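Hi support team,

I'm filing this because I wasn't sure whether my run with A2R finished correctly. The job status page said complete, but I'd like someone to confirm that the output block is well-formed before I use it downstream. Pasting the exact inputs I used:
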Amino acid sequence: MRALIIGGAGFVGGYLIRELAANGFEVQATCLPGEKITESCGIHFLDILNKDEISAVLGEVRPDIIYHLAAQSSVSVSWKKPQLTAEINVIGTINVLEAIRELQNPKPRIILIGSGEEYGFIRAGACPLSENEPLRPGNIYAATKACQGMLGEIYFRAYGIDAVMVRAFNHSGPAQAPIFVISDFCKQIAEIEKGLHDAEICVGNLSAKRDFTDVRDVVRAYRLLAEHGVSGKTYNVGRGKAVEINRILETALSMAKCEIAVKQDPTRMRASDIPLIEPDTSEICGDTGWKAEISMEKTIGDTLDYWRENV
Ligand code: A2R
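And here is everything the job wrote out:
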């Protein structure tokens, strides 16, 4: 099976390239000019805002499966650059779907990677969230990802495009940008161990409960969805067991090589933090046999080791 990863230079892309290659896929990936993909695979340059570039790469690669990871993936950037976020995440997705629509049959399957953020302001008692729960996105990034999923469904129904939609919940692991909580805590601990700043870790809201999955489990889910996902269907990808951010902090601190104090940082608190976000994962478990296997302790330990080598 030949896979093309659109947007392969990001955090998830590298792990997905390795997961697919290790399981017998022929893997090719795209990135923006100026970006770098370090894993070994065929590399193509394209900007998803240019549909002709997408068509040219699809014509050359003739993939059986396409993973669409290219995105403006930051919630905070989405507030500052709403037009750019909508262009990349919505118009970019339309460009990819149109380029597929124009291909001769047999057309490739496309896996559209959305986000658990799409559920947004969830009603009390709605967790664990099933895929049928109404979407009430609470930020611009989430709204564009909800739109991406709807477009996938529309192209499936109107044109028979073999689209499978994913709503990925929090995922983490070595090399993730430190704007995400596990990576942030681990980077701060590694810096403190090296004496780069005071033995004090800055934290935000510790009482929120979120669902964390190791990125290596997440990309295994993406591989299994290529093989066993049902066309036109949307799948939650997550552990299905939320934990308090405080437990993540305690676990990370228990692995630190020195005593570290905890300091609440008001700039890290969000105005409207939702207390609990947890997915129902029975659809992906039932259709593909997937479930998260890597413990949160391993994810935190490996991420801490990554930062010990990289600060
Ligand atoms: O923003 P950059 O320069 O890091 O590039 C990102 C790239 N990208 C684009 N690729 C092609 N054409 C564009 N116009 C364009 N704009 C941005 O997509 C980056 O290399 C990649 C996305 O990777 P990350 O931001 O690291 O996201 P991550 O964590 O790998 O998540 C993958 C997917 C995304 O769709 C997320 O929204 C979803 O999973 O959760």
